Amino acid sequence: MKDEKAKDEKATLLDGKKLSQKICATLKSKIEKLKNKKPGLAVVLVGDNPASQIYVAKKEKTAREFGFYSEVHRLPASAQEKEILSIIQHLNDSSKIHGILVQLPLPAHIQTQIILNAVSPLKDVDGFHPLNLGRLFMGDPLFTPCTPQGVMELLKEYHIELSGKSAVIVGRSLIVGKPLAHLLLSQNATVTICHSKTKNLEEVCQKADILISAMGKPHFIKNSFVKEGAVVVDVGINRLNKKIVGDVDFESVQKKASFITPVPGGVGPMTIAILLQNTLKSFERSMS
Ligand code: NDP
Question: Is CATH 3.30.530.20 the right assignment for the domain spanning 35-120?
Fold first, then answer.
């Protein structure tokens, strides 16, 4: 970690696009060596949320590009729990499928937890099943949630020291903030999780050696939130004036941070790479 920065020096980019391509290329070469069988990923998409449609299309395209078998099950927004559960049951039983992902959010009339609980923990490549989350907190997960794991891989690639460092995460969701806190803790960081009721957020963030934002508020994290030389990871994906932006005000923060993720091209591509990595892991486990 750089402690001192010359005044006009900009932060080093934590390039998730580049690292994700490296990970996916490794997966592809492993798949090419397999005879007659491919790891299979199934995505269940309910409704017509435009962002979800884009994410699912990207996951499907990337999976195919790197040699995976891929299925997408699209259901209308009016679909009932029973129909979704029946598709998940079919996918749990299918020998072609090694990873099942239910794209969130689900329509309001569907109880998300019931659906996530129905995915076989052995095919739960998103790591959202209670068994996998529980195992994560015990230090022995079958699958680690993709976005938090993607952040960890990015920090590792750039040799960011975590042990003894102060890590502040803004956001406490089950898919990002909470599992990420655990992963950072397991690498001996001292972790603070912030949320909408946190008092003096700016001051708390200023103490971070590693500041991670997963709140979903465009450009909320300003230069004044950031300690000189901090590592800043922006998980947020927000639409602002027809552009995709993160939670971090990149232009001003890059002048203060030592490392920073761009949006797009930071955590987003890492999420997909880890999803595919988890699918191959599941395939290999099913073969052993
Ligand atoms: P959630 O809406 O589930 O959680 C947002 C969190 O931010 C909550 O804990 C909330 O607090 C907190 N928060 C909101 N406003 C404030 C505020 N003003 N001050 C402090 N905390 C605040 O979102 P997700 O975790 O699902 O996603 C977060 C962001 O990450 C989104 O932009 C999403 O699109 C993006 N994302 C990106 C991924 C990627 O691959 N790059 C993958 C997944 C998500 P509280 O709990 O009190 O409500």
Answer: no
